[in-house]
Structure formats: structure tokens, C-alpha cells
Amino acid sequence: MHASPETVSTARPWQATASAAPSLRERLSISLERARRWEFWPAWLYYIPIVAWILWLGLKHRSPTAFTAANPALDAGGVVGERKHQALAPLQENAPDLVADFILLQAGTSPQRVAEALGFAARVGLPLVLKPDIGQRGRGVFIARDAEAVHDYLHRFEGAVIAQRYIGGEEFGVFIARAPDAAQVSVLSIVHKTFPSVTGDGVQTLQALILGDARARLISATLFAQWAAQLQRVPAKAERVVLVEIGAHCRGSLFLDATALCTPALVATLTRLTDAVPGYGFGRIDLRIPSLEHLQRGEGLRVLELNGVTAESAHIYHPDTPVLDGYRAMFKQWALAFSIGAAHARQGATVTSPLALWRLFREDLKRGAQWF
Predict the structure, then answer these.
(1) What is the pLDDT of residues 283-307, one digit of tens each?
(2) pLDDT for 19-76, tens place per residue?
(3) 257 vs 331: CA distance, rounded Å
(4) CA 327 to chain centre
(5) pTM to 2 decimal places
(6) Topology of 101-166 in CATH?
(7) Which of 65, 185, 231, 233 could bond to 178 as cystine, CB 3.0-4.6 Å?
(8) Strand 240-242 versus strand 197-199 pairing type
(9) How far apart are CA 77 and CA 279, in angstroms?
(10) What is the pLDDT of residue 17?
(11) By the 8 A CB rule, do 228 and 354 touch?
């Protein structure tokens, strides 16, 4: 047997064109199915009980924002507005075998930063992952497959940007917690990030294939925007079209609970990783690795990002996970955030005030308008 050919999106989100919309009946069917599955609920709706829990924990600890001290290595503990390079830089310095190589491109419009990015690409190869130094939930992440795409991205977005080596393999998000006096990390969650695809039959358009796929149809609005220029193309028979390349739930990735894959060997590697980044010990580590077996052996992993307090124990988004299980995991996560933050605060770590945190959230809302 021959492997099926694969196609991935080369469209640039800022170059998408208008696409034909599905029928009203189809849109209603999708809306009803999304409403039935809480993983697709609006964030504000799902987070109402969690916000109430956070307020209660603030009263209990007599510090409403004690959680901002859970990661002294990150701005405000990695709640909002943290700079990705803060954690990646010490990891690259102290444990380079555990991180995907990267460089920081300073904000601005200077042609020099394009030259720096292309020089980096010449060393590590294309494609290149480009993403804002300050960003959340996959915002602004783009895989540049050629020099023109690098040039376009950096000319469109003037903020500070991370240029990172593209790492193939399986993608995971591992949520860890480590108190200041703990000898090793605790693993709260492991999620396997998989990328939906459809297979052509030589007859149906890409749009029809998306709407005919049980999972892809639920994220069709996102996919139609990403694939707008190719929706009427008819993929060849047996042509596999990978619909998503970015490991973010809001960008269409499918999250599968892989917590059972945790092993002592993986914990040992993650402990070495956090040792290499003083002041980091609470959040989700996004990484790629050659295989599930490599993950269990704690070998060959490459970190893409170290996320802070407001990252989620993302195994809860496994399809058909009961909503109460999701809340239990999030309540446990936030209780630990307060406990670890309070412990760091007692050792002198800075706690961000509620007013300062509010300002950071407002700045992030403005910043979000710059990215796709």
C-alpha cells in the first residue's frame, strides 16, 4: 500500500477571501450540536462557576491575586500579558536539548528583523513558526513555509515576534505543578493534540468534505476562514487534507486525554526542565515529541511554549467529557495556583495587585485586535 498524499494549508489568514456559507438548516444543526457539547460553549459562560471559585479562594487566602506569584519567572505569573521568551530563554540556555530553537525579533518595521528571521531559517530550515512574544490561545501563530511568507508576516505585524524551529511529531500539552520546596513536579494533566483531516473522493469539494465530517463540521466557521481560497477545490481520491496545524483548541485542534501516559521517566525529565527555568513551576508545557513511546520514556521532547497560570488542564476538552469532570479539574488547578502562589509570596515573590492585573487584561484586549 502507498501512503495517501497529504495537503496542508498554505493560505495566509490575512489573505483569506469570502466563502460560500452553508445552508441555514446546516448552520442550525451545527449550532445545536455545539450547544450540546460544552467544549464549544463561549468561555464567559463556562467560566462563571470558576470565577466564583477564584473569588472564594481569594477570600480564603486573604489575597485575591495570590495566584500571580505561582510563577515568579513570568510577568504576573503568566496570567496575562507574559512574554514567551521569559521562560524559553533560560530553557534554551540551561537545557537546549529540551526546547525548540528560537530567536526573539524585536518590535518594529526594520528590514533587519526580516533578515534576522531569514538568517535563522537558513540555520534551522523551513518551515518556520512565527508567533507574537505576547499572545494567548494560539493567537497570531503562523507556520511560514517560504521566505515570502516570513516577509509578509513580519511586515504585517510590528510587535515583538518569536521565530522558532518547526518541530514535527506528536504534540502534547502537559500541565505541571511544583511547590517551592517540592523535589519534583506533579503532573495534573496530559493532552494529546491531534489535527483533524478529511480524505478526498475525487467528487466532493473541500467545503462538502468539511461539512460531511462529524468533527470538522463543528468547527466549520474556523476552517472556512482558513481555507477560504480552496473551499471549491475537489481533492483527488485518497488525498488527505490536514485541516489544522496549530495545537490550539480554538484553532480547531482535537484534544484527547492522555494523562494515563504519565511515567516516572517523564516526571524526571519535566523536573529537569523546570530546574532549568528558575521560578517556573505551574502551568501547561506545550511540546512535540517523535512518538507516544518517547513521551513515556521522557526522551526526545522539544518544548514549544511554557504557559502560566491561566493555561488549562486541557484534557478536559476530550470529546464527551462530563462537564462536572471539567469543573473538578479546573477547581483543583486553581486551588493549587493559590496555594503555590501563596508559598512563593511568603518567600518574597511579587503578587500582582488586582488593579494592575485589570490593566494587563485591558492591554491584552487591545493587543488582541492586532492578531488573527
Answers:
(1) 999 999 999 999 999 999 999 999 9
(2) 556 778 888 888 888 888 888 888 889 999 999 999 999 999 999 999 999 999 999 9
(3) 18
(4) 20
(5) 0.87
(6) Dna Ligase; domain 1 (3.30.1490)
(7) 185
(8) antiparallel
(9) 9
(10) 47
(11) no
